[in-house]
Design brief:
Blueprint: H1 21-39, H2 42-56
Helix pairs in contact: 1-2
Length: 58
């Protein structure tokens, strides 16, 4: 069997670790806006935010 060069990926390798809280917030804001439009109320957004806070342990 022929020996070939290892494959190279064109993408940078992902860093292991946690995301910065600001990045996580910016990722969650579009979902919060979508919930606000679909369910037509701040209560739903507040409930979801509270649930996420409980899951994250804060």
């Amino acid at each position: 069997m022929a020996h070939t060069a290892p494959r190279r990926t064109t993408f940078a390798p992902r860093r292991a670790g946690r995301r910065h809280p600001l990045v996580a917030t910016l990722m969650a804001l579009p979902l919060a806006a979508l919930l606000l439009l679909v369910f037509d109320g701040w209560e739903t957004v507040a409930t979801q935010a509270s649930s996420v806070g409980v899951v994250l342990g804060r």
